[in-house]
Specification:
The protein has 347 residues and is mainly α. The chain has 16 helices and four strands.
Length: 347
């Protein structure tokens, strides 16, 4: 159990925890917020990569599962006073009015509700393939948003939920991110993970080998939906406010961008890409406002950041289709080889 590789893995996890603890103590509030966002986007990116990358399905409804997890967690953690303050147009449904749970159980329940709805959705639509599946899941995301906008007594409609307690911090966001990374690597090495990748490569051959296509696709979709719900809950309690417009297709696009840039099917690529994209989105925020070059002032163009990222996505698809890591992973063996070469060069 405690062989050399396991000790290295434990050491790497411990080093990551130490680095995060140092960053959490030395960075300002704004930088810590970005650090939290990076951890959340790692969870969301890996959850979508499980569906799109590991199993080869094409889902575009991730924002819908995030919304389910976010609203479930928010409604379960809000106090009766908070609910009364938010639901002033129409009272909240009686069975939710006095329920108040801790953040961790509420987050897990949000993930479970997302997983259940994901399974119910997947049961009929997984018989579709390629573009048809993508359109169906995209439609689901929009349906969820419309439902949440029009269920005033359950979600507070278009007004959303405000004044949420900001439970999400570095231990929560990165703790869940590290657990998700460990889970994904374990899943990939398991028989289920190998079956997912066999389905991705060739469904006919996988079925001929005795793999139940529907069962494994349903499992992948359900697990991905669970982690999307957990990520949505973390995001809700980081922002402190949520509304249906927050979970438009643009949210799914951001996560898809992370998966494609990192490499569809690569866990390491998704983690690296999530950090790069999160930091870049904040660093390039100046593009949305007016830019004074001294000799000329470029007027503000809201959404210019997303135009830049959309162009980047197009370039990756056209010229670097495998993304940053392709389907490769950064493992202990590759790290050992890299540092071995570095030592030889120094000698």
């Amino acid at each position: 159990m405690f062989n050399k590789k396991n000790l290295y893995r434990m050491g790497l996890i411990l080093l990551t925890v130490i680095v995060l603890a140092i960053l959490n103590s030395v960075l300002g509030k704004y930088q810590v917020r970005i650090l939290n966002l990076a951890g959340i986007y790692i969870v969301l990116g890996l959850s979508l990569n499980l569906i799109n990358g590991f199993t080869g399905l094409f889902s575009l409804g991730h924002a819908g599962f995030m919304a389910i997890g976010a609203y479930t967690s928010a409604l379960l953690t809000m106090s009766a006073v908070q609910k009364q303050a938010n639901f002033f147009v129409q009272p909240i449904v009686p069975w939710l009015a006095n329920i108040e749970l801790g953040f961790l159980p509420a987050m897990m329940i949000g993930g479970i509700v997302s997983a259940i709805i994901g399974a119910l959705l997947a049961a009929p639509i997984l018989r579709l393939k390629d573009d048809y599946l993508a359109i169906a899941t995209l439609g689901f995301g929009e349906i969820i948003r419309v439902i949440f906008t029009n269920t005033q007594s359950l979600t507070n409609g278009a007004l959303g939920l405000k004044g949420l307690t900001r439970f999400t911090n570095v231990p929560y966001s990165w703790g869940i991110a590290l657990l998700t990374i460990i889970f994904m690597f374990s899943l990939r090495r398991s028989s289920y993970g190998k079956a997912f990748m066999a389905i991705r490569e060739d469904e006919i051959a996988a079925e001929a080998m005795g793999i139940d296509l529907f069962k494994h696709k349903l499992l992948a979709f359900t697990i991905g939906s669970f982690f999307a719900g957990v990520g949505g809950a973390l995001l809700a309690h980081l922002m402190g406010t949520i509304d249906p417009l927050m979970f438009r297709f643009l949210m799914t696009f951001n996560i898809l961008l992370i998966v494609v840039l990192g490499g569809i099917g690569s866990i390491s690529g998704t983690v690296i890409s999530a950090i790069i994209v999160t930091v870049s989105m904040e660093a390039l925020r100046f593009l949305d406002s007016a830019i004074n070059l001294g000799f000329v002032v470029i007027p503000s163009v809201p959404g210019m950041r997303m135009v830049l990222f959309s162009m980047l996505l197009m370039l990756v698809i056209l010229f670097y289709q495998h993304g940053l890591m392709g389907r490769d992973e950064i493992t202990l063996d590759t790290l050992g080889g890299f540092f071995g070469k570095f030592k030889k060069k120094e000698a």
